[in-house]
Design goal:
535 residues, Rossmann fold, 18% strand, elongated, Type IV secretion-system, TraD, DNA-binding domain protein, transmembrane helix, membrane, DNA binding
Length: 535
């Protein structure tokens, strides 16, 4: 039925009429001016475009001629604007001082939202790295601290300064000598570090991962007490037999898991899987090595890079996840400070392995100055790694999101729901015209329909061009339809990756010759055995 509320009458009828009338008046004024100087034919040429645009505007809102027309007006729910308009709304709402210097696609981000998390979702090549780089350019200039998992070393090449920054990939020649033993300050830390290396697992694997954590915690505690190094940890975790482990875990809770050889075989399999990266650590590093948590507590104006190449992903993903977990835990132990900024930057984070403290960091790091930038490709990867419920809780903690082209229908559906629904009213006209000998007649009717629909359909997200996306900023601001710009080109600051020279394999010393024991028939010491031999 027709709704006689003034706002509906204004938006559906009066406003289109006034706009169209204004277009026609402008056209007539243009004709008057042109007619004074130009010939009538040129005056008509000036008026025709104005009349055309007036016709199109009326057709859009009312329909034209016989048939039907409709006018769609937004009532409530999610709304979309262009990038420039969204930036103006941010400034109007928060002011230039509070918006700070961080921006995405030219849209300024209020400083209070920096600690609420950023997620860039999209298929490879859609613009996630472009958006991350535009943010890191500013973060680096500020002097904020950051831990960056750096696929292909693109960020190390752009920013790395050996006088200020650190490299953590142990097979990079520039790397610091990190050891899990250096993160321990007391015996109780062995359990925390063990969970960083062997994270909790979803589903049925949770119990077995816990067993492996217990054994590894005992190994770390023994190595820390005895002043051992990375090489010893690797050997004990991967190759030591049950008898040796029973000896070093005699006073540890892990001793109870070493009573059944078949059970220990299953635990050893998990230990070997998660500690494969430990074999890449510098073997001599131990409790006196580099400590990432101590570096965080020093609050440096620096970046910690873990640059890695594609073929290093499988052996290194556990170490990357462990270091990210150590970093996140260290930030959470800092005193609260609203002005501090320490960034956790993980592009394609679901491919890096599970970071055990990720959910806790996303939920609670805000008051400590912790900020996160996560890149996500497919939702199924996150569900597989963290479990559906934990993944849902974790992702819901992130307030600012950039939605780029999705690689699959499940991810597109999730992102579409995240962009929200809108409620619209459609004012529709239907009419007919007839003629007869007695004359013609026109009939028309109007009705309004209220509908709820997606702001952006999943199919639209799957067809979005590269570098084009939808930006959601925390709060009640509308969604911005944006286009990313490539970051400015500049000379590389460093090599993306510098391989460490392989340590030379020591040449084994020759075994000593066995001593000969004289026999009773042996030749006397001073007698030549060749004497008397005829040649």
């Amino acid at each position: 039925m027709f709704n006689f509320r003034f706002e509906n009458i204004w938006s559906s009828y009066l406003r289109p009429s006034f706009v169209s009338l204004g277009i026609l008046v402008a056209g007539l004024m243009a004709v008057g001016v042109s007619g004074f100087f130009l010939k009538p034919i040129l005056s008509a040429a000036v008026f025709v475009p104005f009349a055309y645009f007036a016709y199109k505007y009326l057709s859009k809102n009312f329909g034209a001629g016989t048939g039907s027309g409709k006018n769609i007006n937004h009532l409530r729910g999610a709304a979309m604007v262009g990038g420039a308009e969204l930036d103006n709304l941010v400034i109007a709402r928060y002011g230039k001082r509070q918006t700070g210097d961080l921006h995405i696609a030219g849209i300024r981000i209020p400083r209070e939202f920096e600690t609420r998390g950023f997620m860039f979702a999209g298929a490879p090549g859609t613009g996630k790295s472009v958006a991350i780089t535009s943010m890191l350019d500013i973060i680096y200039q500020r002097g904020d601290a950051a831990f960056i998992a750096d696929r292909s070393g693109i960020y190390a090449a752009r920013y790395y300064n050996p006088q200020r920054d650190i490299i953590l990939n142990p097979i990079d020649a520039r790397a610091h000598e990190w050891s899990p033993l250096a993160e321990m300050r007391s015996e109780y830390d062995s359990e925390t570090i063990a969970k960083s290396i062997i994270p909790d697992a979803p589903g049925d694997a949770a119990e077995w991962n816990h067993y492996a954590q217990t054994i590894l915690a005992g190994i770390l505690l023994h190595a820390w007490r005895a002043g051992l190094n990375n090489s010893a940890i690797t050997r004990l975790a991967q190759r030591a037999d049950m008898a040796e482990l029973k000896e070093i875990l005699a006073d540890h809770a892990g001793i109870g898991l070493l009573q059944n050889e078949k059970m220990f075989g299953s635990i050893r399999g998990i230990l070997a899987t998660y500690t494969i990266g430990l074999a890449r650590l510098l073997p001599q590093a131990g409790r006196d090595g580099f400590s990432l948590s101590a570096w965080v507590h020093e609050q440096p104006a620096a970046f910690a890079f873990f640059p890695y190449l594609s073929d290093q992903m499988k052996p290194m993903r556990g170490i990357i996840a462990a270091l990210a977990d150590v970093y996140a835990d260290a930030v959470l132990t800092l005193p609260p400070d609203a002005n501090r900024r320490l960034w956790l930057v993980l592009d394609e984070f679901a491919s890096l392995g599970r970071v055990d403290s990720m959910e806790n960091f996303l939920t609670n790091a805000r008051k400590h100055g912790g900020c996160s930038i996560l890149g996500m490709q497919a939702l199924s990867q996150v569900h597989s790694l963290y479990g559906r419920d934990n993944a849902t809780s974790m992702l819901s903690s992130i307030s600012t999101r950039l939605t780029l082209r999705a690689p699959d229908a499940e991810t597109a559906e999730y992102l579409s729901r995240g962009l929200g629904d809108k409620q619209v009213v459609r004012t529709m006209r239907s009419g007919s015209r007839s003629s007869s000998k007695q004359g013609g007649s026109n009939t028309e009717s109007w009705n309004q329909q209220i509908a709820t629909e997606r702001l952006v359909l999943p199919a639209e997200i799957m067809r979005t061009p590269d570098l084009v996306g939808y930006l959601q900023i925390a709060g009640d601001l509308p969604v911005g339809h944006i286009r990313l710009s490539l970051p400015p080109q500049r000379p590389d600051a460093a090599h993306a990756f510098t391989p460490r020279a392989a340590a030379p394999t020591p040449t084994p010393e020759p075994a000593p010759a066995p001593e000969l024991t004289p026999t009773p028939d042996a030749t006397p010491e001073n007698e030549n055995p060749l004497d008397g031999l005829e040649l």
